[in-house]
Write a structure and sequence with these properties.
With about 120 residues, the chain is α+β, with helices and mostly antiparallel strands. It has one domain: Sufe protein. Chain: A, CATH 3.90.1010. About 40% of the residues lie in helices and about 20% in strands. It has 6 helices and 3 strands. Helix 1 crosses helix 2. The chain starts with a helix and ends with a helix.
Length: about 120
């Protein structure tokens, strides 16, 4: 089973956390995916990261992978996370170009929450 499907079936920290220090919602244009990102920050470090939303399998799987990846990062490092780095988190999967927007919804929410 590939990484995206694993994270879709058993997501990392899929939970609404309105008490988070930072929060943002992003809406994708491909499938209408909606992802909320919740970040807990202590002394400039992302101590915990959660997501929730209504989205397709690719979007939800990549949101889980992205939140797991940013835990422990300093804010500046997480701000600089690139699309290529996010796609590398699921390097065992060939995401069709037409679905790249789905894979990046959580990254967009993360970037806006950190701005």
């Amino acid at each position: 089973m590939n990484t995206i499907l694993q994270h879709w079936q058993k997501p990392f920290h899929r939970e609404r956390r309105p008490e988070a220090d930072l929060h943002d919602r992003s809406v994708g244009t491909v499938c209408g995916d909606e992802i909320d990102v919740y970040l807990f920050v202590v002394d400039g470090v992302i101590e915990d990261a959660f997501f929730d939303g209504d989205a397709c399998t690719i979007c939800l799987g990549m949101a889980s992978l992205t939140m797991q990846h940013v835990v422990g990062m300093v804010i500046e490092e997480a701000r600089g996370l690139t699309e290529a780095e996010v796609f590398q988190l699921a390097s065992d999967v060939e995401i069709p170009r037409s679905r790249h927007g789905c894979a990046l919804v959580a990254l967009r929410a993360l970037q806006t929450a950190l701005s």
